[in-house]
Write a structure and sequence with these properties.
1 helix, mainly beta, about 450 residues, 21-stranded mixed sheet, single chain
Length: about 450
Amino acid sequence: ADSTTYTSNRGKPTYNNISYSLNYTYIIRPGNTLAIMSDVRSVKNDRDIYYMEKSDNSYMLERNQTGTNDFLIYSGQVDYKHPFKDKYTFSTGVKVSVIDTDIDENLKEKNQSVWVENPIYTSRYSYDEQLVAGYVNLAMNGRKMEGRIGLRAEYDISESDEMPKNKEFELFPSGFLRYKLGSDFSFSLSYSRRINRPPFRSKLPYNYFISSYSINVGNPNLKSSISNSFVFDVGYKSNFLSFGYDDIKNTIYLVSQYDKDSGISYASNRNVRNGKIFNISLTLPFKITKWWSSFNNLVYRHKQYDDARYSLRSRNNMFMMRSGNSFTLPAGVTFEVNAAYMSSPMAGPMVKEKGGFMVDMGMSKDFFKNKLSVTITMDDVTGFMNKYETETSYNNFIKNTREFSNSRKLSLSLTYRFKSGKEVKAKTNQLSGSQESRRISE
């Protein structure tokens, strides 16, 4: 290398989140209900980040990036449930949501003690989306058989300053059937068609500066991802063997493209056209002795992704074992050990993680007639997550990443239970806009 460049940054991010929700349920008769939910949520994310780059050949550059992301979500939902003939339940509902988004990014560079705005990395955009959805569902719960069949329809309209109005209409059928063979055996089969919409800001053509050699850009052509999922389960008492298959179109994934001339890596969310995932899972709980119980899970997963645009044809086989063990020791001491082994899995269509072995441990005991609980835990005893390594490979582009963190932690917690009074049941409001809220933080 001709020289080495060092980059440091410090930031002042602020997050303001205000939400209001209204829930009302009218009980017509037992099991027959009408529920109304409405939400308003305002999220404002501000940041002020200072960057400094310098090299061993006296090169130095200072940058200051400021940005404001405003999200305003209105949503409302009505659900109706009606049981009939003892074992059947019919339900239907409708939902409406409106999202307003404003993105403001600004980058200034220091030139001879004067801060000058860089127009390439300065952008101001607005994005609006309206979603109308409705569903019908019929469920049956019999002595030996239970099932459910449903259909959901969604109509989505989105537009922004730099993107023409886009309209999408999709249908999402689903079904589930379980048959009980005696008191111990059961078989179940399920199918669902699902959608994963992209984060709001990903569809805007912004430029987000990370360093002189790494820049994130938006993608106005980003599409929603559609998956068809099938699951078949066999159960015996508390033991389960599960087979799953997912066929995915337009998987949303962060793709980096390297410009050889400038040496800059541009990253943006893109659609990977074809993806398939096959899973086998075995769950085995054991009561080994009176004082030792164990919960074990074995997983095999095969992933494959194909997209000729990125010369992508990736295949990955992953095996994982997890075991949770609880020991009841003398003097009322409880000791727990959770262990997991994972071979090298794919974190996405183009990224492979390094596998390894991880152990968590903990011990607890109660004092003063169970009023005081003392718990000591040790996370990641083996230090597996201290060093997170990945390899990104596609289209003749290879990137190896190492991230270091303090995953090995020793914790002590004390819990004291005062004299109990009248029990108060906590109520948690359901939110009609929970799906839209997740697309803010993605």
